Automatic annotation (TrEMBL), chain A:
<dbReference type="InterPro" id="IPR029061">
    <property type="entry name" value="THDP-binding"/>
</dbReference>
<comment type="function">
    <text>The pyruvate dehydrogenase complex catalyzes the overall conversion of pyruvate to acetyl-CoA and CO(2). It contains multiple copies of three enzymatic components: pyruvate dehydrogenase (E1), dihydrolipoamide acetyltransferase (E2) and lipoamide dehydrogenase (E3).</text>
</comment>
<dbReference type="Pfam" id="PF00676">
    <property type="entry name" value="E1_dh"/>
</dbReference>
<keyword id="KW-0670">Pyruvate</keyword>
<dbReference type="GO" id="GO:0004739">
    <property type="term" value="F:pyruvate dehydrogenase (acetyl-transferring) activity"/>
</dbReference>
<protein>
    <submittedName>
        <fullName>Pyruvate dehydrogenase E1 component alpha subunit</fullName>
        <ecNumber>1.2.4.1</ecNumber>
    </submittedName>
</protein>
<dbReference type="InterPro" id="IPR050642">
    <property type="entry name" value="PDH_E1_Alpha_Subunit"/>
</dbReference>
<feature type="domain" description="Dehydrogenase E1 component">
    <location>
        <begin position="15"/>
        <end position="309"/>
    </location>
</feature>
<dbReference type="InterPro" id="IPR001017">
    <property type="entry name" value="DH_E1"/>
</dbReference>
UniProtKB/TrEMBL annotation, chain B:
<dbReference type="InterPro" id="IPR033248">
    <property type="entry name" value="Transketolase_C"/>
</dbReference>
<dbReference type="Pfam" id="PF02779">
    <property type="entry name" value="Transket_pyr"/>
</dbReference>
<dbReference type="Pfam" id="PF02780">
    <property type="entry name" value="Transketolase_C"/>
</dbReference>
<keyword id="KW-0670">Pyruvate</keyword>
<dbReference type="GO" id="GO:0004739">
    <property type="term" value="F:pyruvate dehydrogenase (acetyl-transferring) activity"/>
</dbReference>
<protein>
    <submittedName>
        <fullName>Pyruvate dehydrogenase E1 component beta subunit</fullName>
        <ecNumber>1.2.4.1</ecNumber>
    </submittedName>
</protein>
<dbReference type="InterPro" id="IPR005475">
    <property type="entry name" value="Transketolase-like_Pyr-bd"/>
</dbReference>
<keyword id="KW-0560">Oxidoreductase</keyword>
<dbReference type="InterPro" id="IPR009014">
    <property type="entry name" value="Transketo_C/PFOR_II"/>
</dbReference>
Amino acid sequence: MKNSPSIDEQIEIFRKMHVVRQLEEKLGALHKEGKTRGPIHRCDGQEAIGVAATAMLDDTDYVMSTHRGHAHYIGKGLDVYPVVAEIFGRETGSCAGRAGHMLVADASKGMIGGNAIVGASIPAATGAALSNQVLGRDAVSMCIFGDGAAQTGICHEAMNMAALWKLPIVFVLEHNQFGLTVDTDMQSPIDDLSIRAAGYGMPSEIVDGNDPVAVYRAVGAMVERARRGEGPGMVEAKTYRLEGFSTSDMGGYQKDEDIAAWKARDPLKIAFDQLKAEVGEDKLKTIEAEAVAEVEAAFEKALSDPFPEFELFDASAAYSEVV
Amino acid sequence: MALMRYAEALNAALREEMTRDPSVFLFGEDIGRYGGVFKVTRGLQEEFGFNRVRDTPISEQAMTAMAVTAAMTGTRPVLEIMYADFMPLTLDALVNQASIYEYIWNGQVKMPFVLRTQGGGGAGAAAQHSKSLDSMVAHIPGIKVVAPSTPADAKGLLKSAIRDDQPVVFLEHKLLYNMRGEVPEGDDVLVPLGAASLAREGTDVSIFATSRMVHESLKAAEALAEKGISAEVIDLRSLKPLDLNAIKKSIAKTNNAVVVNEGWNFCGYAAEISATIMDHCFDDLDAPVARVTMPDMPIPYSEPLEMAVLPNAEKIVAASLQTLA
Ligand SMILES: Cc1ncc(C[n+]2csc(CCOP(=O)(O)OP(=O)(O)O)c2C)c(N)n1
């Protein structure tokens, strides 16, 4: 099928999804031991979107992420070790401990940032698409955002301009059913937020966000279109946030039966089933074990790395107020 | 008196004012069923219903603009903005709307709304969830700004803010929500806007502090006392209108001033207080006014970096000693 991932790509997506899941589970365990700092937003259950949607991108393509960006970081090609080191505030982190888990960037990989101001990544990604158009680069920009972010005013302003100027951008809406704690029907009168794309004259597609192949195909088609200069598109990926809003979530608003129903459709399981005939269960189990080992090693190394030392105005002279 | 957490004191203020006045209503993100991410509005939706305690979509800009006209047209909205870092999204409504109409329409309308938010560092919440933007809102004419540092003030000031006919930005601090303290009982126990409070008496140096920095200043005063220095700590608590008399009175006694605020230094709240002291107390000063603030940079995530940039008791002691040197 057109835009389908190759088997090798699919295997890589499978591997990265396991890296992300292991990362999330480790973070959850360390949080319970009181070893994390600040809120951590896990993306368990949403790995297929972040990893598969970014799988066809090059380093020169830009991705803007959210406060829940771990799958986007790994999908966009960041190694897990500097991500873990960043989450633990170490000098060896992707941003030398300055950013923390919500704001990770690796500009060399085109990952220009997690963003913890909800909605802010939508015009941010649109601006990167604008610079691609101004300079005539064939790179695309991708904004991954949530159903909560879709309700911000800035979302409308950005999408209108993206479509008006046919900017090379793909909007990937991770519809995980919740804003922070409010369900989607307390935030919007419509279920399928992507019907709004029609209002901008922009194509859209709804996919099963727990199916990495479906995500890849839909996003891949929009990326190709955008790269050809035909303008933006939107993919609405339906999924579910299995582990609550963040590690500071006090719970009580997600229904047990919903969690169970979505766990039965775990994206890791779906990815496994899609590959087992072609690749064989043993090989997949080996890949999974290697991913787990990679994450374990990353934690071990990162947790013994040094913390940064403070120097005033250390990042750059830009913050010096008097010259 | 009742022993309460700061968050509970705020909750009590909201409950009492909503009971007293049916035009008071709340809206904000996750404040209803969940009770707010800091649990300040816990139980209020159950008690007062959705009509008066509304969960909103993530729409700060529209919400604040709506609060302005809702206030102009007969209600007393209390809007919760989850983090002070999101206040930049509310600024058009504050700067170009709320601050002008009462004056330009020659008193035809009033603007009784409260924007509650919380700021401050120290929780590892990183550069977009830790800021203190006091001066950004205190800069706007026609808008009052308060920042309680104790449960009693949290309750008494919030009640006054809700009853006030001007917009009030109400700044809470994330590290104070669990602080316990005695809170006077009674529906009509208010703390007036515009009055500072004397947190500790002293004679050698006046430390003017806001929000959580009041507690750091009290710790600093303790340490200074051990060195034989008597520091007075004034909790400004009403950032605007400012209690100039309290400032003048203290400086007339101590002749030395240190200003402590968690916001940025350049054009910051402490800079304004320092300039105000220069305007009004120059002849009483023995030394230049010292400021203890956040350096002009983003708040770093990593713990040793974050702790290094935040003002604290140690820095307040050092600034006080330098002033007295
Ligand atoms: C401008 C702004 N308002 C509010 C918040 C607080 N907040 C953080 S995440 C979140 C919910 C976001 O929902 P969604 O976009 O669906 O992402 P999800 O957390 O479900 O992945 C909220 C309200 C914020 N960070 N920024």
